[in-house]
Amino acid sequence: MLRYFPEAGGAYADHKRDYAIAAFTFVVTGICLTIDGSGSREMQWALAFFGYLFLIVLLSGESKLLRMQVVVALLFATAGELFASPYMEGYIYRFGSVPPYVPAGHGMVYLTAVVLGRSGFFMRHARAIALFTVISCGLWTVWGLTFAERSDQIGAVLFCVYLIYLFKGKSPMVYLGAFFITTWLELVGTTAGTWAWAVVDPASGLTQGNPPSGVAAWYCLVDAVAMAGAAPALKLFSRINNSMIQFKQLARVRTEK
């Protein structure tokens, strides 16, 4: 079950950049969601401007593959937002539509899950962090099914899905990182009133909390799509770029003749 976890007792280096990105995203998402809890539509566009600016800066020091993974994750997660919120109304933002800063936010959240997962601290303590994650999310799930004011059946389903990804998936460290950052933004966002989850999930008819426990399972799916789509996307862009170069060279030769 732990074959994709890092080797126990290994010497894993710490890189300040990883911790800086993670800390920055936690702070920025907290501020953004709190502001949007009572802000105007114009404020949302201002938050979007800074969100994309921050994302570009954070990605500037990463590899082409990871940058493409973030782009794929951003596009897929945004498409999921448009389907799940305005269309299905599984959760509703304050103004009904998906705020313009959300795509950039998804990019930053996915990047944070990756850098947390690759950090020396997470690599050295992967099993302890996994145990903490399973116990804390498990207790949250039990509370949601028993003592919570709103029954959280969807949270229990998502928790089971998350466990499958964590112990069977190929990116367990990313999934561990996703648990912390998604739990943080869900708690901040729902507390601030930036969005609210429907009492009953419209797709399944199951009850859900605000937010559901196990919500990090959605980012496991996002990671799977990002991992699968990044390499083909890079190859496609490389072919397009080579074709454009060849076309320009051919046009230059014809002009010289």
Model description:
The protein is mainly α and 257 residues long. The protein has one domain. The chain contains nine helices and two strands. It has a two-stranded antiparallel ribbon with strand order 1-2. Helix 7 packs antiparallel against helix 8. The termini are far apart. The model has no long low-confidence stretch (mean pLDDT 93).
Name some characteristics of this structure.
257 residues, 2 strands, 72% helix, mainly alpha, two-stranded antiparallel sheet
Compact overview of the structure:
With 257 residues, the chain is mostly helical.
Mean pLDDT: 93
The N- and C-terminal alpha carbons lie at a distance of: 66 Å
Helix content: over 70%
β-strand amount: under 5%
The SSE string, one letter per element, is: HHHEHHHHHEH
Task: State the total count of DSSP E strands.
Answer: 2
Shape: globular
Radius of gyration: 20 Å
Layout of secondary structure:
Layout: H1 16-36, H2 41-59, H3 64-87, E1 91-93, H4 102-118, H5 120-124, H6 126-146, H7 153-168, H8 172-192, E2 195-197, H9 217-256
Antiparallel strand pairs: 1-2
Helix pairs in contact: 1-2, 1-4, 1-8, 2-4, 3-4, 3-9, 4-8, 6-7, 6-8, 7-8, 8-9
